[in-house]
Write a structure and sequence with these properties.
Number of domains: 2
Bound molecules: uridine 5'-triphosphate
CATH architecture of the largest domain: Alpha-Beta Complex
CATH class of the largest domain: Alpha Beta
CATH topology of the largest domain: Spore Coat Polysaccharide Biosynthesis Protein SpsA, Chain A
Number of helices: 14
Mean pLDDT: 95
Strand content: 15-25%
Structural class: alpha/beta
Distance between the termini: 53 Å
Helix content: 25-40%
Length: 467
């Protein structure tokens, strides 16, 4: 580590001397902790980011040539169903051969949910209170069992939740996994700044840092040795998913199959947007390059545009479920030059006496997004999925995309499976299941499996638990 006085001097020279205002009041340990954070600061990086913010360097998409991306739609015709079956067979063969890995990005701070702990420890099971981590684990284990294969699980955390995440797995017997098949690694942290580009003290002896976004997963996969581990195991395809959506179909054989058939480097699942302003990214071609445009960056003209059939032109909403080829991540990961996005946030800060949580946004977090690597792909497929089968994110404390809405959507999906198996389930006027239903992935991974296993005489009253 560089000498304290030198670090302090460089902070002063770079207009960040305020970080050392309380230096003389810190204990030796506190000084060491602050120096450790300061030692990692790259002033050129901060200056470039702050300059970008001042120049408002984001892309003005209204000036770009935007075209809808081709989508493999939900199969209806016999031909489409045949293609789906072929894709499934390709994906299942890859699963059986042990060529797929599950990759969870769980390094986010989960500020909107405001849960004290890793988001994966949040309880979403409608009846059992099963955590998000447990849902994902059961799904991967059930799929591995079905195909007689091992599916290793790579989990990206960050400094904000790494210790607690690993502790949770250790205390819960690795959720049924063999320890050697679960690998944790941390993404990088970057400094947050106030609106004047000044670094922020998060507490007496630490800088306000934030994980570098889910885009950071690409270099973290390489840096951590996860890609090398995958290669050793013969893994060729990575099933990327986020921690907050228990409906995600991890290592989906159909999705993997289409991705592999196309020789794709990175592929995406999308759904038909519920309404033009829905807060999901738009997947489209932008000046000839496959791109995801965040809902907040889409201009109104394109957001509401209709095609010649009167259907929303940009109807394909990205739900952050991807397949990635191991070679692609290996190729771009180490130096993935993803653009930095900014988010204005309420960043708790130390005012010299105590930590204050501001009422209004007081600073900027910089993040990269994984979908910004799509323009770098030589081949990619985009596949539509049914919303009720695959999308129930837990983002907020209440209302839309909350734990309550997620639990209802879980019950709704299981009600649909039960109906397909011949069991009546009462629904209310909004179309929601009145029966609270929970079916463990270990009992059934999909509607067909449920039908084949459902005990005779099963009925759905107020509650139904199958595990
Ligand atoms: P979100 O964008 O919803 O962020 O992350 P978040 O941190 O969970 O929640 P808010 O925005 O602070 O309320 C989507 C997924 O990407 C992961 C999250 O853990 C989640 O699975 N993620 C996000 C990371 O792994 N690292 C990051 O730096 C950001």
């Amino acid at each position: 580590m560089t000498d304290a006085s030198e670090i302090r001097k460089s902070f002063e020279e770079n207009g960040q001397g305020h970080i050392f205002a309380g230096w003389d009041t810190l204990s030796a340990d506190e000084q060491a902790a602050l120096l450790d954070d300061c030692n990692r600061v790259n002033f050129d990086w901060i200056k470039t980011r702050v300059a970008e913010v001042r120049e408002d360097h984001g892309t003005d998409f209204s000036k770009c040539d935007l075209k809808p991306a081709p989508v493999i739609v939900l199969p209806e015709s016999e031909e489409e169903k045949k293609k789906e079956a072929e894709a499934r067979a390709t994906g299942e063969a890859a699963l059986k051969a042990g060529k797929l890995a599950a990759f969870l990005v769980a390094g986010g701070q989960g500020t909107r949910l405001g849960f004290d702990g890793p988001k994966g420890c949040y309880e979403v099971g409608p009846l059992t209170g099963k955590t998000l981590f447990q849902w994902h684990a059961e799904q991967i284990l059930a799929l591995a069992k079905r195909h007689g294969a091992t599916i290793p699980w790579y989990i990206m955390t960050s400094r904000t939740n790494h210790v607690d995440t690993v502790k949770y797995f250790e205390e819960n017997n690795y959720l049924g996994f063999d320890k050697k098949d679960v690998m944790f690694f941390q993404q990088r942290m970057v400094p947050s700044v106030d609106f004047d580009g000044k670094l922020i003290l998060a507490d007496k002896c630490g800088l306000a840092l934030n994980p570098d976004g889910h885009g950071g997963s690409l270099h973290a996969l390489v840096e951590s040795g996860a890609i090398a581990d995958m290669k050793k195991r013969g893994i060729e395809t990575i099933s990327y998913f986020q921690v907050d959506n228990p409906l995600v179909t991890i290592c989906d054989p159909v999705f993997a199959g289409y991705h592999l058939q196309a020789g794709a480097e990175m592929s995406s699942k999308i759904l038909n947007k519920a309404y033009p302003e829905e807060k999901v990214g738009h997947i489209c071609y932008c000046d000839g390059k496959l791109t995801v445009i965040e809902y907040s960056d889409m201009d109104e003209g394109n957001m509401y545009a209709k095609d010649e059939n009167g259907k929303l032109k940009f109807w394909a909403g990205s739900i952050a479920i991807h397949m990635l080829s191991v070679d692609f991540v290996d190729k771009i990961g180490g130096e993935a030059k993803l653009p930095w996005h900014i988010a204005k946030k309420k960043i708790p800060f130390y005012n010299g006496t105590e930590v204050v949580t501001p009422e209004e946004a007081n600073g900027i977090k910089f993040e990269t997004f994984v979908f910004d690597s799509l323009p770098m792909t030589s081949a990619s497929i985009t596949m539509e999925v049914a919303r009720e089968e695959e999308f129930a994110p837990v983002k907020n404390k209440s209302g839309i995309d909350s734990a309550d809405s997620c639990r209802q959507l879980l019950s709704n999906r299981f009600a649909k499976w039960l109906k397909a198996a011949g069991v009546d389930v009462a629904h209310n006027a909004e179309g929601d299941s009145e029966c609270v239903i929970e079916i463990s992935p270990l009992f059934a991974l999909d509607a067909d499996e449920l039908k084949s296993k459902l005990p005779a005489g099963t009925t759905a009253g107020d509650k139904l638990l199958l595990e």
